[in-house]
Amino acid sequence: MAALLLLIIYIAFIGLGIPDSLFGAAWPAIYTEFGIPVSRGSLITMLISGGTIISSLLSAELIRRFGTGRITAFSTSLTAAALFGFSCSGNLLLLCLFAVPLGLGAGAIDTALNNYVALHYRASHMNFLHCFYGIGVSLSPLLMSLALSADSWRNGYRTVFWLQAGIAVLTILALPLWKRVSAVSGQEEEAAETVRFSRLLRDSRVRMACLVFIGSCGLEYSCGNWGSTFLVTSRGLEVDAGAGLITLYYVGIAAGRFLSGILSFRLGSRRLVLMGQAVVLAALLLLCLPGLALPGLGLFLVGLGNGPVFPNMLHLTPRIFGKRLSQSVMGVQMAASYVGILLAPALFGVIAQEIGAALFPGWLFLLYLLMMTGSFFTVLKRKEK
């Protein structure tokens, strides 16, 4: 039964990834149809990220009251409803309205399932869990592309809604399975201690862990958003070639998490985090060197090294902070992740506009130093795996 529940969790994580890359694929068609500036898309993505941060911080109390299974089922249903709302929207105001439940649902799923897997499964399962997230992120732009070529972005959202609704129904039907797994394994869900956000931040270990997530996620999304621009404006590549090389970055992330899942049987989460960060340092040095081939290799290695950091840091959370505090700390860490996702690419956008995209490797190195500062106090000082 534990294996069946793990499969349900994997499928739910596909559902978590589905909305994340859908809006970016649809936005060129949306803002053209609505006749609004392209920059208005940032308003929607900020609302989604804001909702995710809020639900991440509230997740410990919600899961304590309702349990991981119910939160997963409700939140997946909430995101499905939001996707349907996007498909029916006729103006920017409605898109902003439905962006809020989309973010709230995503944050609750993310925090709840990451903590459950960290508590009850091996590090390999955490890494493979995030590979399934990658399936969702990769699937939705493909479906939107097919919809745009055949009809409209609304049908793309409607198609993804039906897929997400199917996953929501599956999570609802699986609700009895959570209790059965607990009964068979003899492991009830850990009685989580709900701790105030302000109290958690007084703990220096929590602050340092947040630095790891802000740095790692900020680096990840800065690469995804600005890597192609750097290659085109600073290294002289054609636009299509820049887009092609940035694909190597996403391949690197997927490969890094898959390899991490395999290697975790021998190395453990702590070593995988440190090894990944060493690969990122080598990659950043390659990005600084002249030549057209090295930046592409550098971006691939950034993804390869940084990809395992996020899932393995999550898996270490119960070991660093204890099982009773892990849910509260997990919520803070997920909120910190979305702070990095929200702010880092936007800040570099200002730098690129005012100074130039040539500072891209330097910006990534600053984020890397932020990540390593946090890692020194939360990972390097620990003796266990």
From TrEMBL:
<protein>
    <submittedName>
        <fullName>MFS transporter</fullName>
    </submittedName>
</protein>
<feature type="transmembrane region" description="Helical">
    <location>
        <begin position="358"/>
        <end position="380"/>
    </location>
</feature>
<feature type="transmembrane region" description="Helical">
    <location>
        <begin position="92"/>
        <end position="116"/>
    </location>
</feature>
<keyword id="KW-1133">Transmembrane helix</keyword>
<feature type="transmembrane region" description="Helical">
    <location>
        <begin position="272"/>
        <end position="293"/>
    </location>
</feature>
<feature type="transmembrane region" description="Helical">
    <location>
        <begin position="128"/>
        <end position="148"/>
    </location>
</feature>
<feature type="transmembrane region" description="Helical">
    <location>
        <begin position="160"/>
        <end position="178"/>
    </location>
</feature>
<keyword id="KW-0812">Transmembrane</keyword>
<feature type="transmembrane region" description="Helical">
    <location>
        <begin position="67"/>
        <end position="86"/>
    </location>
</feature>
<keyword id="KW-0813">Transport</keyword>
<feature type="transmembrane region" description="Helical">
    <location>
        <begin position="247"/>
        <end position="265"/>
    </location>
</feature>
<feature type="transmembrane region" description="Helical">
    <location>
        <begin position="41"/>
        <end position="60"/>
    </location>
</feature>
<dbReference type="InterPro" id="IPR011701">
    <property type="entry name" value="MFS"/>
</dbReference>
<dbReference type="Pfam" id="PF07690">
    <property type="entry name" value="MFS_1"/>
</dbReference>
<dbReference type="InterPro" id="IPR020846">
    <property type="entry name" value="MFS_dom"/>
</dbReference>
<dbReference type="InterPro" id="IPR051788">
    <property type="entry name" value="MFS_Transporter"/>
</dbReference>
<dbReference type="InterPro" id="IPR036259">
    <property type="entry name" value="MFS_trans_sf"/>
</dbReference>
<feature type="transmembrane region" description="Helical">
    <location>
        <begin position="329"/>
        <end position="352"/>
    </location>
</feature>
<comment type="similarity">
    <text>Belongs to the major facilitator superfamily.</text>
</comment>
<keyword id="KW-0472">Membrane</keyword>
<dbReference type="GO" id="GO:0005886">
    <property type="term" value="C:plasma membrane"/>
</dbReference>
<feature type="domain" description="Major facilitator superfamily (MFS) profile">
    <location>
        <begin position="5"/>
        <end position="385"/>
    </location>
</feature>
<dbReference type="GO" id="GO:0022857">
    <property type="term" value="F:transmembrane transporter activity"/>
</dbReference>
<feature type="transmembrane region" description="Helical">
    <location>
        <begin position="206"/>
        <end position="227"/>
    </location>
</feature>
